[in-house]
Design brief:
With 658 residues, the chain is mainly beta. The protein contains six helices and 36 strands.
């Protein structure tokens, strides 16, 4: 390529090109979503439905629900960056502390909710340089590859790389060791360790492994239980293996599947960042293969103003075979930084940086490795959440007003009533002869401090009106409010009932014992699998009995509206004046959000969370390493096309660092 004949920036090898002065890269209708103007020559995408996208994308504000999904198409071949934010367990995505404002070509401010500036106020200070972002805690993130999916917009390993960005450095930019650019894993694996609210480990023991003569004993488990992903994996970091049960002599078909827990080293050698120190130096921050954090600082200071910074890495050994490149040992090379086209800093014998997947199944690491952060690094798992056990109270000593608002007699939607007269099965007590009442006069508990004191226990009473002979053998009491439940997890609906002898003993027609049953009911618009059920058959009256229904919505159906109730049925009308009592009526499942405090203050959060304070305008990433001539060429044409940037670029001679 003859640079002297090229009157523009270099486009050969340009894989990611974000230019905020171009509306195709930053469309204001998409808020702070940025898209590359072009794509890598070998970029590939496919029709991919990511059911589990929200499990990790919720943690950096990319989605607003942890059950959100993402659909990709073959046309999604350009890298996108999104504004980072955080979610809470009560709902909503927030950006306080991660402030970004945008300056448009006409000088108007965009994104004023974090600045206190009045809308449509003209920002005259530097609007003339073209559209750009002002960062005050906020930054952009996106991923360029998905492990084990047909999706790769930029290679994870190359024979060289160039990263070039146009930024504005202010006096405030020196305030916090802010990171200008980061690449690699944006967090540790949130599912290593697993969280007890969503995953339970069973039968732990040690499995012996040997590699390169080194023997290790890894934690293994016979099985897990809990929430599963769209790929039917549990929310833990493991790989499957087999073991032979003790005492088995014939090995044919005698292997047991086990789950071997993964090591916590997925970020080792998997993240690197360029930062601006508080005293004006540039620095590299990275984690080596042993998990040790390194900081290297330039010997020269960088000046304020609009600046083009170019980072290049070129290994000493070039591997042309892509299969060999993927598996080759880490190489040494030259890491160079150019400022306004001139060599600013060079590190020889620098360890090659390239990027790897998290050691877990593919759907539990979506968007975590192979990450790009522009204008900041990553806050890691600071804002991460897990599913936790949520116990909903349907009835537990509530008053009459609550009963009136939340319970009704209705038809059981799971029963075919085509041959049954339904008159008197629904409506008020006047039409059904049934009352739903609060009762606090029949049952008592003992005061734990004074056994002589009996405390009244309030229960829900289902009562046949005095003087009204029951003519029905089936009654369904529905809990009126619906529930928004999630698939891929078990739920348990349970209640305690006290039967005073509501069933008749003999069928009048057959003279055989009556068929009686009290059960719990759950229904919705999706298929529901009943895993276990405990019903009551009328055989133990005058004592409290347990009802339970363990169920699971059809997997991978997401959020569903579900209704529940209690169904009383017999083949004879119930006895005159019957009474049935209900208490401790609950619905339990792991579907509320909780934080895992063990995921706070980890390595990435503590060392890569500081964002750059200043301006951003352009980001370019090439799939090869620039020469010094190419770095100077791009800087020259950047300054020539936008002289208002006042880039200090001079062709020829040498540059004096201030």
């Amino acid at each position: 390529m003859e640079l002297k004949c090229l009157n523009d920036i270099i486009h050969n090898g340009l894989a990611i090109h974000i230019d905020l002065t171009n509306s195709k890269s930053w469309d204001l209708n998409n808020k702070f979503t940025l898209i590359s103007l072009n794509q890598w020559k070998n970029a590939k995408s496919d029709n991919i439905f990511l059911y589990d996208f929200g499990l990790t994308a919720f943690d950096n504000g990319r989605v607003s629900n942890m059950y959100d999904t993402l659909s990709l198409t073959p046309n999604d071949t350009k890298v996108k960056l999104y504004r980072v934010g955080y979610n809470t367990e009560t709902g909503g995505t927030f950006y306080d502390g991660y402030g970004i404002t945008g300056v448009t070509e006409n000088g108007y401010i965009y994104g004023l909710e974090f600045t206190g500036i009045t809308a449509n106020t003209t920002f005259t200070g530097d609007s003339f340089v073209g559209r750009h972002l002002n960062l005050n805690g906020g930054y952009l993130q996106g991923f360029f590859k998905l492990y084990n999916y047909n999706y790769e917009l930029f290679p994870s390993r190359l024979n060289g790389i160039t990263i070039e960005t146009v930024v504005r450095i202010d006096e405030n930019s020196y305030s916090n060791n802010g990171i200008l650019f980061m690449m690699g894993a944006r967090s540790e694996d949130k599912y290593n360790d697993p969280f007890s609210g969503e995953t339970i480990l069973l039968s732990t023991y040690k499995t012996k492994t040997e590699k390169n003569g080194i023997i290790e004993y890894l934690d293994s488990y016979n099985s897990y239980s809990g929430i599963t992903t769209g790929e039917a994996n549990y929310l833990a970091a493991y790989k499957t293996g087999t073991t032979i049960p003790n005492g088995v002599k014939n090995l044919d078909n005698k292997y047991n599947e086990i789950y071997i827990r993964q090591k916590k080293n997925s970020i080792n050698g998997n993240v690197i960042a360029l930062q601006l120190t508080t005293d004006g130096y540039l620095g590299f921050k990275y984690i080596d293969d042993d998990g040790i954090l390194h900081n290297q600082i330039s010997s020269n200071k960088i000046s304020t103003g609009w600046t083009i910074i170019t980072l290049t890495f070129k290994p000493y050994e070039i591997i042309t075979n892509p299969d060999l490149l993927e598996c080759a040992e880490k190489r040494k090379g030259d890491l160079a930084v150019y400022v306004n086209g001139r060599l600013f800093w060079k590190i020889k014998e620098f360890d090659e940086f390239y990027f790897k997947n998290i050691k877990n199944q593919k759907e539990k690491q979506l968007g975590v490795p192979y990450n790009i952060s522009w204008g900041g690094g990553s806050f890691g798992l600071r804002h991460s959440y897990h599913w936790d056990v949520n116990k909903r109270i349907l009835y537990n000593g509530n008053d009459q007003s609550y009963i009136n608002s939340n319970f009704k007699l209705d038809l059981n939607p799971l029963v075919d009533y085509s041959c049954i007269t339904t008159t008197g099965m629904t409506g008020t007590s006047a039409t059904t002869g049934i009352q739903l009442l609060m009762n606090d006069t029949l049952f008592y508990s003992i005061d734990i401090c004074d056994p002589q004191i009996e405390l009244p226990v309030t229960v829900l009473e289902i009562r046949n009106l005095t003087g009204v002979t029951p003519t029905k053998s089936k009654y369904y009491i529905e809990f009126i409010p619906s529930f928004e439940l999630l698939s891929n997890r078990d739920y348990v609906l349970s209640a305690k009932i006290y039967d005073t002898g509501i069933f008749r003993n003999t069928n009048n027609s057959t003279q055989l014992p009556t068929m009686n049953k009290i059960s719990l009911v759950v229904y919705g618009t999706t298929d529901i699998n009943v895993l276990n059920e405990v019903t009551y058959r009328g055989t133990t009256p005058n004592k409290w009995s347990d009802l339970s229904l363990k169920f699971r919505l059809k997997d991978n159906t997401g959020l569903q509206t579900i209704f529940v109730g209690i169904y009383i049925e017999s083949d004879e009308p119930l006895v005159d004046g019957f009474r049935l009592y209900i208490d401790d009526y609950t619905l339990t499942g792991s579907d509320k959000l909780s934080k895992d405090l063990s995921k706070n203050d980890l390595l990435i959060e503590n060392n890569f969370s500081n964002s750059f304070v200043g301006g951003l305008q352009k980001l370019r990433i090439y799939d090869y390493a620039f020469t010094s001539e190419e770095a100077l060429h791009n800087a020259y044409w950047e300054s020539k096309k936008n002289p208002n940037l006042n880039l200090n670029v001079v062709k020829g001679g040498r540059i004096i660092f201030r």
